[in-house]
Design goal:
The protein is mostly helical and 230 residues long. It has 12 helices and no strands. The two termini are 24 Å apart. Bound molecules: iron/sulfur cluster (SF4). Iron/sulfur cluster binds next to α10.
Length: 230
């Protein structure tokens, strides 16, 4: 079985080095995340470009703009722009009032506390909080791309489980054990696994016939563990 470091080397040889397609500052990431829905990189990038051009993204710029005007600026990002506009207002208000407009400066102390602070923002659960913590350079946590925890699980163990939380935890354990606890190593792992999950190892109908891991993948080679659905 390939270990996680070998898998990442194989993916990097195939896809090349990856860069984040989103702002790594915690506040800006929260804004970017709400610029698109469903929140794909493409949808968020469209809404983000429109918001920056028409209104700006600072807390004060968002707060002084009407919800209707915000929704209009967010429309290129996809569905429910009104809901996203209200959430942006909530984020901007909290960052302005509770963090003096500098969220990053407020994310200090034990990681559990930082995670708790981040999870108070709309649409941020553990995977989102870990992503922010890692890419903002706060700590080299073992973050797993929220839409593809199945990638490592499939390669190393076979068929993933139905339970998202179990897959996430298994992927996180593999990264924690086999990727050095350093910011550059953990961000590299995140980006390569995310890219592979989007390009080939899709949640449904993975394109195994094109995959560079194919012959070493437990899912593909049928080495399923016969795990109970849970
Ligand atoms: S062979 Fe299929 S299941 Fe395995 S990593 Fe590649 S795309 Fe994913």
């Amino acid at each position: 079985m390939l270990d996680t470091a070998q898998i990442l080397d194989r993916l990097e040889s195939y896809y090349g080095p990856q860069q984040p397609a989103w702002p790594t500052d915690p506040y800006l990431y929260l804004v970017w995340l709400h610029c698109g829905y469903p929140a794909s990189d493409t949808a968020c990038a469209k809404g983000w470009a429109s918001l920056k051009k028409k209104i700006g993204v600072s807390p004060l710029q968002l707060l002084k703009t009407s919800t209707e005007a915000l929704a209009s600026a967010l429309t290129p990002g996809g569905m429910v722009p009104e809901v996203r506009a209200i959430r942006l207002k909530t984020i901007a208000e909290r960052v302005q009032n509770e963090f003096g407009s500098d969220l990053r400066a407020g994310l200090v102390g034990p990681i559990a506390q930082v995670r708790k602070t981040l999870k108070r923002f709309p649409n941020i659960a553990d995977p989102g909080a870990d992503r922010i913590i890692l890419f903002a350079g706060i700590a080299p946590v073992a973050a797993v791309p929220s839409n593809c925890p199945h990638v490592l699980v499939r390669i190393q163990r076979g068929q993933e489980r139905e339970n998202y939380g179990v897959n996430y935890k298994e992927a996180q354990q593999a990264i924690a054990a086999e990727v050095p606890e350093k910011l550059d190593a953990r961000t590299r792992a995140y980006l390569l696994l995310k890219h592979h999950g989007q390009e080939l190892c899709k949640r449904t109908k993975p394109k195994c016939e094109q995959c560079p891991i194919q012959l070493d993948c437990a899912y593909f080679t049928g080495k399923r563990r016969g795990r109970a659905v849970g």
